[in-house]
Amino acid sequence: MSIDRPTAEELRQGVTVEIVQGDQDVESTDQEPLVGEVATVYEDDPDGPRVERKSGVVGHVQSIVTDR
Question: Which DSSP letter does residue 56 get?
């Protein structure tokens, strides 16, 4: 199954995203993604673009949240 994740170029500060932290298994269905606003976009990665949320949590973006 291919996951269609955004790229680092598609992200900007203030965008609300779902992320998975580095110590979480990105393919696991047991973990709920964390939702929050992007503070800093770092780089693209095979697990999804690496970002820091405004809360300070760093992780890999799984998707952009368009409706809350």
Answer: S
Q: What is the pTM of this model?
A: 0.78
Per-position pLDDT tens, the chain of length 68: 446 889 999 999 999 999 988 665 555 555 677 999 999 999 999 889 999 999 999 999 999 998 75
Q: How far apart are CA 8 and CA 29, in angstroms?
A: 24
CA 49/CA 44 separation, integer angstroms: 4
In sequence order, which residues have a C-beta less than 8 Å from that of residue 16 and are 6 or more positions away? 35, 36, 37, 38, 64, 65, 68
